[in-house]
Amino acid sequence: MRLALTIPFLAITAMAKCAVIDGGSQPPATVPPSSTAYWFDQPIDHFGLNNGTWQQQYMFNATFYKPGGPIYILTPGEAAIGTYYTDKTYFTNLAEQTDGLVVAVEHRFYGQSNPMPDLSGPSLKYHTIENTLEDFAAFIRIAKSDPDNVFPVAVSPNSKVVFGGVSYAASISAWMRATYPNIVDGAWASSPLIQYRYENYWLDQSWGKHLAALGCAIEMAQAVNELDEVMFSGNQTAIDDIQARFGSPQLASRDFAALISAIITINAKAGVSTDFEPTQYTVCDFFDSSRSNLDSYALAVSTLIDWLGLSQQALTQMADTTLGLDNYALGQVARVWYYQSCAWYGDWQVAAPASTGLPVYRSRLVDLEYYTPNCKNKFGNHMLDRVDSEGFHNKWFSILQNVSKIYYTAGSLDLWRASSATPREGTLLPNTTLSPTYLIDGATHAQDISAPSEYDLDSVQQARDIGNALVRQWIL
């Protein structure tokens, strides 16, 4: 068994200002390495609360660029940038086909792009979606109007811009097209999250549908019920024993339940485009009539822990819901993401409440009470007791209505499909030729943006073909 993983790495080479190169009709003789990091000055707050500045990191691949070609802007969203984003996504293939330039721009407060010196509550108040979008818009304005200021190669002024991303970053790409149509000429939103809920148990239901397609949804639901019988029993000896069987360190019951739920969903059926043959093993392969469903669940999790090489210390850190309450150091991705949930949209990933009558595929210990009390503890008493998820959703969903030149995709086995533009029935947004929605049969999360592979599903390639045709229309 082997698990194919792609882990982007962060380039650390920095340059203060890009060299000015005269324009011309020929591509540059020397192309800078795509691993080089560059920096762009941004206001801490674009809306006047703090006039200080910070440096946003970006990288680019000009290998295929010719004057007049488009600029493809990518952001990894909640991750650091690296050459994966400049070299190893489908946008690099698009750049080769269209003489384009690929640019990866880091999201504020992720990677090395930090507007403030720490991640305290007062610092993170500048972490808003409005500031985030304006960061990208400010960069694009300069890239289009005065490219010599940001690129050390000759780039044509007023180049067409296509914004792309996956998952949360796909939402950003759609919001950029909707908010700044004068500078973003099109957006490819792969598996975007466009429906936000305070209590997101639909992620768990999508996981169940995924398991049903693989043939073990009933068994997993039964395993979770067996697990909860132990976890709610109050029998500490039995609880300690079950944690050991799952390969987990001794944790508080809620932390353990959340940890194994997160780990098991990592092993969603592969088929993801990588440079390696996708693993042929799935969660369902571990369910065997010779053992109980709970033992099968434990074996699946413990095996995956071994595959991923997760130490007991790493697992303990993953399960730390405090995320270091008194540790405000930069570089804590989980802390920044948790702030977004607390301050922006909620979308807490929980088991379906008993009142819904729905089956559960994660322990009922993973509920709202597990997540929400920490918001004030982490970020200060000014945090709302309940974030306005409905208000966030209404605002950022409504701006996507009737916007042209956005391409929405999602996989039929995507765990996030219920939050995408194509939930289980119909589409959330008008499916028009102006902004079409395509459901990729048999695919999981954001496979169309992965680099092409001989193992790709035909449906994935079809999704790319549709995207190709749209992009060519956008950049005319």
TrEMBL record:
<protein>
    <submittedName>
        <fullName>Uncharacterized protein</fullName>
    </submittedName>
</protein>
